[in-house]
Every structure is written in C-alpha cells, then in structure tokens.
Specification:
The complex is a heterodimer of chains A (about 290) and B (about 325).
Chain A: H1 2-48, H2 51-54, H3 72-79, H4 83-114, H5 120-132, H6 135-148, H7 155-161, H8 163-180, H9 183-191, H10 196-207, H11 209-224, H12 228-233, H13 242-249, E1 251-252, E2 255-256, H14 258-288
Antiparallel strand pairs in A: 1-2
Chain B: H1 2-14, H2 25-55, H3 73-79, H4 82-114, H5 120-132, H6 135-145, H7 152-159, H8 175-203, H9 207-215, H10 220-249, H11 252-257, H12 269-279, H13 283-291, H14 293-310
Helix pairs in contact in B: 2-13, 4-8, 4-10, 4-12, 5-8, 8-10, 9-10, 10-14, 12-13
The chains are: A mainly alpha (about 290), B mainly alpha (about 325).
C-alpha cells in the first residue's frame, strides 16, 4: 500500500509526459500506415469478397458483408486461367536471372573492389551508370535483338533481358560487400600458400554468403518490378510471367475480374514485399554506397 | 620477396593450377570483370547504339531489317506533334511535382521513424509496402480504387465529408483528375523510399554534433538546415537520383491506369514510345521518342558523375 502511494506521484507524470511525447508520433505513423497500407488491405478484402457484395454500392466496402467470404476468385484464378503456368515461368525466369547475375557479378564485384588494374575506377563508374540507362531507351532496340535471336514471345527473352539491370546493380552491391572484408584475411590465406583465386574461393566467398544471398534476393525482386520488358517481349499466355499474366489476362474487353485480379496481385506481390523489406537495408546501403564513406 | 618465394614454393608443392599470371591484379582483374562487361556491352551498349540508329530510320516491328535511313525526320515530325509535346510536358511535370510531394511526405515520415518507438518495425513494414510491392500489381490495384462505379476513394471521401453528396468524380476519365491521380500514385509509390533514404542519412549524423549544437542554442529547424541537411546531402542526392531516373522512365502507372488517355492527355514519353513503337509498330519513331529522354537523363548523369568522382573507390 505504502509503496504504491509513494510510487504514483513519481511514475505518473513521467508516464504522462511519455504518452504526450509519443502520441503524436504514433498518430503520424498511423496516418502513414493507412495511406500506404490501404491499397493492400483493399486487395485482401476484394480477393475474398463475393461479387454480390463487391459490386453493390450499398455494402460497406472496407469489410465483408452479408454474403461473407468466398474462395471463388481464387478458384477462377487457379483453375480457369494459366496462373500456374505464369507462376512456373516466373520461377524459371527468376532462377536463371539469379544464376546469371551471381555468376557474372560476383567475380566482377571482387575485381572492382580488390584488384588494382588500369581502368578499374572508370569501369566501376561505368557499371553504375549502366544502371541509370533506362529500360525505356532499351526496350525497342531489344525487340530487334530478341527477334534476331529467335526468342520473341518466349520466356527466354526475359531471362536474357533482366540481367541488363540486375548485373550492374548487383556488381555494385557485391563490390561494396567485398570492401567490408579486411584485406588481411586474404593476405593471410595467400601467405599460407593459397593462390589468389584459391584465397577467394576458400576464404572470401564463405565470408560473403550474406552478400551473395542479398544479391540473389535483389536479382529476384528487381526482376519482379519489371513491366515494360515482359509486356513488350511476350504476348502468348503460356509464356507470361506472373505479374504480366495477372494484369493482362483477367481483363476481357471492358470487363475486369477484380476479385481474381486482386487475388493474383496479392499472391504475387506480398511475398516479394516481405523479401524486399527484409533486405531493404542492404538495398539502401547498396545505392548509397558511393555517398557515405 | 620472401612472400612470393614461399607462395611459389607452396604452389609447386600442390599443383600448377592456377597459373602464376593469375596472381597479377592487372591480369586477373580484367579477366574477372570481362564476362559482366561483355554482357553489358552486348545487351545494353549495342541496343543503345541500335536505338540511336533506329531513331534515324523508318524501321517497323513488322519488317525484319533495320529500315531505311531517314535522317532527322522522326525528330522533326515529333516536335510538330501535339501528342508528343504533351507527353514531354507530362514526363517533366509528373516527375517534378511528385518529387516535391515525395520529399515533403518522406521528410515528415523519416522524423517519425527516427523516433524508433516500440512497434516501429511493424509500422515500417506496412509503410514500405508501396515501395516493396511490384509496381505493376499496385498500379492495377489503384485502377480498381479509382473505378468509375465502385471507387473506394470516392466512398472514403464521402464518408469523411470531403466530397459533396451525390458527386462521384471520374478519376481516370477526366483529364485534370487523371493527371492528379497519376501524380498521386507516383507519390504514393515513392514517398516511403524518400523516407528510408533520409533515415539512412540521418542515422549517419552523429548525435554528439547535434547535442553540442543544441547546447549552443540551435533550434530544431536550424539543426535540420545547418547540420543534418549538409551532412546527409550526398545520400539524399544519390537517393533522389535513383528515384528521378525511375520516375522519368516509368510507364507502368500511366499504362495501367489510363493507357495515356483520355485522348493522350496523360501520356508520358515512356508510354508514348511504347504506343508508337510497339502498338503501332513504328519502331523508328518510337525509338526517337525514347531517345529524347536522353538529354534529360544526361543532365542527371552529369551530376551523378560529379558526385561519384568525389568518392574514394
């Protein structure tokens, strides 16, 4: 009893002050969360809401109504479109893009970070600049290149095109990672009789697993951000990747299958968003690597 | 000397692979970089030069060749075309206006996130969704939110009393509203990134400097302007550069929301290049439109180079 009465005057004002200081911050964050999250929330609601309620002006849009929850939109998406094929194509494209990106950007990143050779500096800047060369400039001439290679309207076109933006970014990212590994570790391995390549394979690469994983994740998430290439190079339903399939095949003339569209967007989008969020700090570090020393 | 000797000795003991030449940075370096460079030269460098050629030709999607050389015809006719001029204006306007709002929203948000209160991680995940969800999928969601009949935006606006009863604006069908909608989606997509970039910069500013400024009597505004901004300027710069290039090139939002309509009023260079180059098949003219982004980008790249040169590589 006594302790409580003593405690109160001490803790109460501080808790009140804390609350007064924190409340506006939480209020602000809530505002932003609603602004940012509303479309995604709307995706979820639309996915599971039956058409009778969805297209009824009298029903409260922000939650489920009298007809409850339905899986019809998901059924339509899975069984009456090529959704499975698009998902598979996305997996195939992502696998190859990640592989090509890793194989090309790890050695390049290492060389640019560690080996002093003529033109290394210009190459580093050049590679960063490549990342700034926009898809808008490239998609039209790439139509010609891809037709020449006989890959038009095939998923392989995308496997070829996506590394044009993943390689520059990931090389830049890898170079940043290699720079954080102390030079002495490599030197010690070379002193012990390893060749330089041996030191890289036995010592440096095992230390860069986190970096390589990040690069793999970004090769994937950056590919998932594409729209122009997949829209331009692929038109057959069976060759589409998931994003483009969802936004082109669920619209018949003027009719939008909103339930299934949102279901597709949800299934394709949320995993990418989660992955991206986890690795966002590396992404920020990657693109600001030049700016902070 | 001793080091090379022992290394050579050890190598003789084990195997002759890899050859000694690979120990030299000036040989190994170029070998390791060349596959990546080759890829970039073949699939970025060559297409870029091809774009320049195509823009000077009458090439079309249908023909297999590269078309006939027509000099600057494409460019001349573009600058006489009202659609093109609108697309050019929109590209610049959308980018500039949305940059201002992204900056404002992003800065406020960065300060809120910097408080780092319990639960910030959850908020951060939700707030980052516009940036992390593939833009194709969020754009189509916005199309649904702007629906002519079942617009969630209108419903919410009515619910909070922002729209007078009975008035249902046709967001994507009205020229002015369509432009506003596209800019709004642009801002929605980019503000979380602006915030995160700012936050990354802010956390790199040492609290000691800020504290001593506080002691010297600098208010929050002065501290922001005189200490935080100059210290995070480089990060801010690279971040805005990235966002700028992205926004200048993005056709996803326009294509999915309005297809450039009504009546080509919301077309941007990227979507117009797609319309002309792919949908109408006039590859040469489309390439010319896309190429006109280049002068704008070159200005951006010039500043990028200047910043990058300053860094120690």
């Amino acid at each position: 009893m006594a302790t409580v009465t003593i405690d109160r005057p001490v803790s109460r004002p501080s808790r009140g002050r804390l609350l007064r200081k924190r409340a506006p911050v939480y209020a602000g964050l809530t505002f932003y969360a609603i602004l940012a999250g509303l479309p995604v929330y709307w995706m979820i609601i639309t996915t599971f809401k039956p058409d009778q309620d969805l297209y009824n002006l009298k029903s409260f849009p922000l939650f489920f109504n009298e007809h409850g929850i339905t899986l019809d939109h998901l059924r339509l998406l899975f069984f009456r479109t090529s959704f499975g094929t698009w998902a598979w194509n996305t997996a195939v494209v992502s696998f190859w893009v990640v592989l090509i990106t890793l194989v090309l950007s790890i050695p390049a990143g290492y060389a640019l970070a560690r080996l002093r050779f003529r033109g290394a500096e210009s190459l580093t800047i050049g590679i960063f600049m490549t990342y700034l060369v926009p898809t808008t400039l490239l998609f039209l001439p790439l139509v010609k290149v891809i037709s020449f290679l006989g890959l038009f309207d095939k998923v392989q076109a995308l496997i070829l095109a996506y590394p044009t933006f993943t390689i520059p970014f990931c090389t830049w990212l890898m170079a940043g990672f290699f720079k954080t590994i102390p030079f002495e570790i490599e030197e010690a391995a070379m002193m012990d009789g390893c060749s330089r390549l041996g030191a890289v394979v036995r010592v440096i690469l095992p230390l860069s697993v986190a970096g390589m994983l990040t690069v793999a994740i970004f090769a994937f998430t950056l590919s998932m951000q594409d729209f122009v290439y997949s829209l331009t190079f692929v038109s057959s339903s069976n060759e589409k990747v998931i994003n483009i399939g969802v936004v082109t095949e669920l619209i018949r003339g003027d009719v939008f299958f909103w339930g299934s569209l949102m279901a597709g967007a949800l299934i394709a989008g949320v995993p990418v968003a989660i992955l991206y969020s986890f690795f966002l700090d590396y992404f920020i570090r990657g693109i600001t690597a030049g700016a902070v020393k | 000397m001793a080091k090379t000797a022992s290394a050579t000795l050890a190598r003789q003991g084990t195997s002759r692979w890899p050859p000694a030449a690979l120990e030299r940075p000036d040989i190994l370096g170029p070998i390791l970089v060349s596959p990546a460079i080759l890829y970039i030269v073949l699939l970025v460098g060559y297409p870029f030069l091809l774009a320049v050629y195509l823009s000077l030709s009458d090439a079309s999607v249908a023909t297999t060749g590269l078309g006939k050389f027509v000099g600057f015809d494409n460019f001349v006719s573009l600058f006489q075309s009202p659609q093109f001029l609108i697309a050019l204006r929109n590209t610049l306007m959308f980018t500039a206006v949305s940059a201002v709002f992204k900056g404002l929203l992003g800065t406020t948000l960065a300060f809120l996130l910097a408080e780092n209160l319990p639960g910030t991680r959850v908020f951060r995940f939700i707030i980052l969704l516009p940036w992390t969800i593939p833009i194709v999928l969020s754009s189509i969601t916005w199309k649904w939110m702007f629906d002519t009949q079942f617009s969630l935006i209108n419903w919410v606006a009515h619910a909070v009393g922002l729209l007078r009863p009975g008035y249902n604006p046709n967001w994507l069908g009205d020229p002015v509203l369509a432009i506003i909608s596209i800019i709004a989606v642009n801002v929605w997509r980019g503000f979380p990134f602006a915030a995160v970039i700012l936050l990354a910069g802010m956390t790199s500013v040492s609290s000691e400097v800020l504290d001593s400024a506080k002691v010297d009597g600098a208010g929050p505004v002065t501290r922001f302007r005189k200490i935080i901004v100059p210290m995070i300027a480089p990060v801010l710069f690279v971040g805005s550069l990235y966002d700028l290039v992205f926004t200048l090139n993005d056709m996803t939002i326009v294509y999915l929301l309005t297809r450039g309509g009504p009546g080509d009023i919301t077309q941007v260079l990227a979507s117009y290049a797609f319309l002309v180059g792919v949908q109408s098949g006039a590859l040469g003219r489309g390439a010319a439109i896309a190429l006109l982004l280049l002068p704008i980008l070159l200005v951006v790249v010039f500043f990028a180079l200047r910043t990058l040169r300053r860094r120690d590589i």
